[in-house]
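Lab notes, practical 5.
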Amino acid sequence: MKHCIIYAHPYELSFNHAIKDKVISLINSRGEQYNLIDLYQQRFQPVLSTDDFIALQNNTVNDDVKSHQQLVTEADNLIFIYPIWWFGQPAILKGWIDRIFSSGFAYRDDENGFTPLLTDKSATLIVTLGSTQEVLLQHDMNDFMKSMIVGTLNLVGISNVNCQQLYEVPTLTEDERQTMLDNISI
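Output from the prediction step:
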């Protein structure tokens, strides 16, 4: 199994960083392979630009997009690690999706209709939240992952999605955080 980790958190001392390290440790312990895309460390340009559109019209993509698409192509499982901010993923991750999951790579939309092209992949989502699950339920926000799972991953053909939501991260004790880390699965 080969994994591609897409990591979107700017702070090296964050719990998300500890999750990334735990995931890498799990992969290594199983003798599997991975590539890491650390969006903040790589200073990934998340803005879908005019140049991107021109490249797509010419049936090509810019070099930074091409290198990330190659890592996605090589992977059996995509692992997304990120915090939920304002009930969604960080802007840098949304921009990555906009640029990398482009027409001709992640899907085809032509006279024959919409065709997903990443049907040979699975995905693991590990997301952190500051609030409790109960607060989200009170505000009818239980479906906050729907746009990522259904509107992005399922849409491009990734139907096998493992989603792990880690609540109340800022207020947890170190022991509670360690328990969360111990329960992460990929």
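Observations recorded by the TA: The chain has a mean pLDDT of 93. The longest strand covers residues 77-83.
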